[in-house]
Design goal:
By secondary structure, this protein is of the alpha/beta class. It is built from five helices and five strands. It has one domain: Response regulator (Rossmann fold). It has a five-stranded parallel β-sheet, with helices on both faces. Helix 1 crosses helix 5. The longest helix is centred in the first third of the chain and has 14 residues. The radius of gyration is 13 Å and the shape is globular.
Length: 132
């Protein structure tokens, strides 16, 4: 894979990345940019910024680590986005400890590990946005 971002097709899924660590936000954005299949249209590091960014850019998918700064804030964010924007798709990311929470299990989401390959991130986002 080339180390420069590839041009993104106009119909590529539009994604906002939500993670409390700015380095992770940038790393995920760079990783997705290298694939040429995902358009990263925004970033946020907390619940308020995430809601504002989703309202501003209207993404297809939000890639979110629900620990913002704790799992309760992340669960509230995910539930709030699901209610406010029913067509918005949500993909969770983390180190495995974000799975199995009853509140998250009740909301339709995808999941990809932060240690996933670029292809795994793309697959999770595309499947959430455009299921076959």
């Amino acid at each position: 894979m080339s180390l420069t971002p590839r041009p993104v097709p106009p119909d590529a899924p539009r994604v906002v990345i939500v993670d409390s660590d700015r380095r992770v936000q940038q790393s995920l954005s760079d990783l997705l940019g290298l694939t040429g299949q995902i358009a990263v249209v925004g970033h946020a590091g907390d619940v308020r910024a995430a809601l504002e960014e989703v309202e501003r850019v209207h993404p297809d998918v939000v890639l979110v680590d629900p620990r913002l700064p704790d799992i309760e804030a992340g669960i509230a964010l995910i539930a709030g986005m699901s209610r406010a924007w029913p067509s918005l798709r949500i993909v969770l990311t983390g180190w495995g400890d974000t799975q199995g929470h009853a509140q998250l299990d009740a909301t339709p989401t995808g999941y990809v590990s932060k240690s996933g390959t670029p292809e795994e991130f793309v697959t999770a986002i595309v499947e959430a946005c455009c299921p076959a």
